[in-house]
Design goal:
By secondary structure, this protein is α+β, with helices and mostly antiparallel strands. It contains nine helices and nine strands. The strands form two sheets. A seven-stranded mixed barrel has the order 1-2-6-9-8-7-5.
Length: 312
């Protein structure tokens, strides 16, 4: 990792020099836009919409468009007088219980490493914060933007998590929130039973990005000059179950069997009876397609499996 910012944690009269590192990285397969015929890279030019001329980067300014369509042009001098802190400080504002901060506020995570002369006060504040069970609410300026953030301890290191401002959080304004939807006590109890059955300690290593892995295999096959084999067709997601109680009951039974290590296919098939007739018809039609030699032995079971997935 390379540090992307240097500054200091300001805690009362204590200053702790630190380096900032990105704590996360997006694992994705990146592509370039290319010419289909010869693979040449596609380049874009910065062209002015008024005179049609290509504009050098040095002549490009920031523009704010008004509701009337008019453009207000801002120069570097306009930004110089703004109250953006340039002190490179992480100012501790207060301490608060972590549960009081809604995770929706968090934007990005960074690691903080102490400089050699700041190791002792770093460890002192880290240990004190960890024993308090709280997080530090701080303010910091990164990339021409001032942000609220929190400091917490993870694996012996301070994690700085930048936050959105309150007016950046959208309010959920959905029609169903104003509707009087009746949920029966039996349905609620069955849903709670399903949650209880599926409860387990979270281990993120159990999950992986199957799409990215499959895409990487396609690329490697192309590089090796091999034939690209299409991935098996996934089952379609169906609509909501007509009989919610039956679907919940079947889901609980399936979850129990999966936890015990036994196959859960019979329960999923049974729950298919609660699906809609339209979804059932699609499943049957889909089962009839493809290579009959591969599906002949399971031709009668395929519709039931698809229906079970829909109702669950």
């Amino acid at each position: 990792m390379r540090s992307i910012w240097k500054g200091a944690i300001s805690f009362g009269l204590v200053t702790i020099p630190v380096k900032l590192y990105s704590a996360t990285e997006q694992k994705d397969v990146s592509f370039h836009q290319v010419h289909r015929d010869d693979g040449g890279r596609i380049r874009y030019k910065r062209v002015c919409t008024v005179d049609g001329e290509e504009v050098p980067y040095a002549d490009i300014a920031k523009g704010y468009e008004l509701a009337t369509g008019e453009m207000v042009v801002l120069t570097d001098e306009d930004f110089e007088g703004l109250p953006l802190s340039t002190s490179r400080r992480i100012d501790v504002l207060q301490f608060a219980p972590a549960e009081q901060i809604d995770p929706i506020y968090f934007a990005k995570s960074y690691y903080l490493e102490p400089d050699a002369q700041g190791a002792k006060p770093y460890v002192l504040l880290r240990n004190a914060l960890e024993s308090s069970g709280q997080v530090a609410v701080v303010k910091v300026a990164l990339r021409q933007r001032e942000s609220l953030a929190t400091l917490r301890v993870r694996d012996g290191v301070f994690v700085l998590e930048t936050m959105l401002w309150p007016d950046e959080i959208r309010k959920p304004d959905f029609e169903f929130l104003d509707e009087d939807i009746d949920v029966r006590a039996q349905e609620l109890k069955m849903a709670e039973s399903l949650i209880s059955t599926m409860e387990a300690d979270f281990d993120p290593t159990e999950y992986h990005d199957t799409y990215r892995e499959a895409l990487q295999e396609v690329i490697e096959a192309k590089v090796a000059g091999k034939e690209v084999v299409a991935a098996p067709e996934t089952e379609e997601e169906g609509g909501p179950a007509v009989d919610l109680m039956a679907a919940l009951r079947a889901s609980v039974e399936a979850a129990k069997r999966e936890r015990e290590g036994a196959p859960a296919k019979p329960e999923r098939a049974a729950s298919g009876s609660s699906g809609s007739s339209g979804s059932s018809g699609k499943a049957k039609a889909k089962a009839g397609k493809g290579d009959k030699g591969d599906k002949g032995a399971e031709g009668e079971k395929a519709p039931a499996k698809r229906k079970a997935r829909k109702s669950a």
